[in-house]
Structures are given as C-alpha cells and as structure tokens.
Amino acid sequence: MDSPKRNQGMNGIVPQPIRYDGAGGIDTGPRDIMRDKENPNMLVPPITDAGLVPNLKFSFSDTLLTLNHGGWSRKITARELPIATTLAGVNMSLTPGGVRELHWHQQAEWSYMLLGRARITAIDQEGRNFIADVGPGDLWYFPPGLPHSIQGLEHCEFLLVFDDGNFSDLHTLSISDWFAHTPKDVLSANFGVPISAFDHIPNHQVYIYQDKVPGSLESEKVQSPYGTIPLSFKHQLLAQTPIKTPGGSVRIVDSRNFPISQKIAAALVEVEPGAMRELHWHPNNDEWQYYLAGQGRMTVVLGSGNARTFDYRAGDVGYVPFASGHYIQNTGTESLWFLEIFKSNLFEDVSLNQLMALTPQELVKGNLHVGPELIHMLRKEKWPVVKYPGSSNYPR
C-alpha cells in the first residue's frame, strides 16, 4: 500500500519552523501548510516570545454559520475564544428585505456596519420610538432590555458586539418566540381580538426571515404620542474627524461623543504599511478586536516573562487581557484597519512613549540603561500610530 502523499505548499514554497538564529528544524510530517502560511509568527515565534499565554485569536471563518431565508449569522463568544469573557461578537448578513426580527436581550448591543444599508427600529421604556437608516461605517447601540429590529435595505453585513463574553444571539427573547409560547386565549385577551387572529402565527422563534424591501424612511415613520428617543441610537463614525499621526489614524467613539453608548467604547484604527499601533496598554478593561482589512501581527506581554505573538487578517478576532502591554504592526502592503472595543463607557489607553517622556529622565535612564539617543526622541504628546523610516518593519 502506498503511503499518503504529504501536503504541498503553493508554488512549492513550504515555510519551515526554523528561526534566523538556527533554532528549530524542518517539518516533513503531515501539516496544514496554508495555515502555517497564515500564521508565520506561530510557526516561527519571535525570540522574545516566552512563557504561557492563552490563545488570543479566533477567526469567524472557523465558526458555524446559521443560515436562514433572509440572511445568516455566526458568532465568536467565550465558547470559541475562552479568554474573551467581557465581550462577544456576531457577524450577520441580511438580504434586501431580510429581517432580524423584533427582539431584546439582557446585554447591550453595539454594532458596526460593514457594507450595504439597513433600517433599524427601537422603542424605550417611555414609549418613545426610533427609526433610522444606517450605512457603511455607521454604528448603532441598543441599551439592555430595549426591543429593536434590523432590516436589510440592500445586501448588508454588520458586526454586533455584546457586553458579555458568554452571550448567544440565539438565546434572546424574540417576539415570535413569545407569541409561540403564549396560549392563544391569553393573546386574545391581551390584544382584544378574536382567537382566530392568531391562526397563522409562527410556532417557534423566527430569528431571521425574508420580507419585502421597505419603503422610504418618511413613508415608514410611526408617530409616538410620547415623542422620539432623546439620545440617538445611531452614530456616523466615519464622519468623525480622525486623529492623524505619521503612519495612520484613529477615530474614538464612547459616551463622550455617542452619549447613549454607556457600556461599550471603541476605536477605529488605520495602520499604514510600515507603521504600527504604538506600544501601549488599556487601564480600564480587556480589549476585543475585529480586523476589517489588511494583515498584521500583535505581540502581547502579560508580565512575569510571558509574551506571545499572533498574526491577524480581515475577519479575525483578537483579544488583549486588561492592562497587558501590546502593539500591532502592519505586515502587509495595504492599510491595516481594525476595531478596538471595550466593555466601558470610556476609551482609555496609556502610551509607553508618553509615560517615559513624562517621567524624570534620570529615572528612565537608570531603569532601562539607555542614553540620550532614546531620551531625546521621547514624545510628551500621544501618537496612537507611529511610523519611522529605518525601522525593521518600514517598507524598503
């Protein structure tokens, strides 16, 4: 019997687990070469990686798709990425007219519109309503317990983030689920209509269903006697003026410029080729990341000699434990775009460069054994993204 053929890499180029210092050796056994190509810093970790660091990466491509007439969804929660206890994410797509039915849940919902257009609706506990259309780069936020819906105006896709790592979008309370599990005589008494009015209601949770594309926003408007919701559930993130630095840009959104968003804060980060999200940490909570475009690598340092490097590309989720030092380098030829998201009402970060610049120089020199070459380059102003010609990741 012939032995199984070993996997071959594209164009005959097979990466090997051999570092520049000679550590490692050739892997000729069974292996997933395509996976190794996508994760070069796991196949050949930087010499600075050490210790025990849990997995800080999971791809939506490795999750189960829930398919419905009207759209699909997939999720990354603490079940898929156990370290991610603070936040969970759902990637959802709706067809033109497809509806994520009226529902509500115990967790706050924050969303980033990836492509296409959709209509969102909600009401609050005072009976004030909200109806709006959202497009690429727009956000929405629904506080815990408030009912809402989403309907595709065209093919659309979006990221939903919830302030509980164990959240499941299949375990929300949907209007169809409540109707299906309520006796019809009770429904009749509640709404004051004959029991026959409920002859055709669904007998299970609908979740996502196909409907026709709704009319204009003006034609769909419903006047509430109590008025509209005073704090908008919608925010146009791409309309914000970004913080620009050499190497990229950052747009920060939290309760200061999106007042309704009391449980989730975020930043949309652009890192140009050859640049990096600077060495920093977050003093208020863990960081949940979603990569939108490009490719990059992140090293996370947990302390006590524990550090690990991961590679990321569009569709991946990354995670950084609270107060852990990290940086993100663009390893591609196009801009790297990603979201940093936090279970907090405020976005907060601490720059290592700024920390050193605002600390007495002699203390920094003595602590790190460095001289004026570094000390004189330190900045008192924060640059979230940095880019210097001559650095190891600067394109040549």
UniProtKB/TrEMBL annotation:
The keyword Metal-binding applies. CDD domains: cupin_OxDC_C (cd20305), cupin_OxDC_N (cd20304). The keyword Transferase does not apply. Residues 1-29 are annotated as: Disordered. SMART domains: Cupin_1. Transmembrane segments: none annotated. Keywords: Metal-binding. Residues 1-10 have a biased composition (Polar residues). It holds the Pfam family Cupin_1. Residues 58-199, 235-376 form the Cupin type-1 domain. It comes from the Bacteria. NCBIfam families: bicupin_oxalic. PANTHER family: OXALATE-BINDING PROTEIN (PTHR35848), SLL1358 PROTEIN (PTHR35848:SF9). This is Oxalate decarboxylase family bicupin.
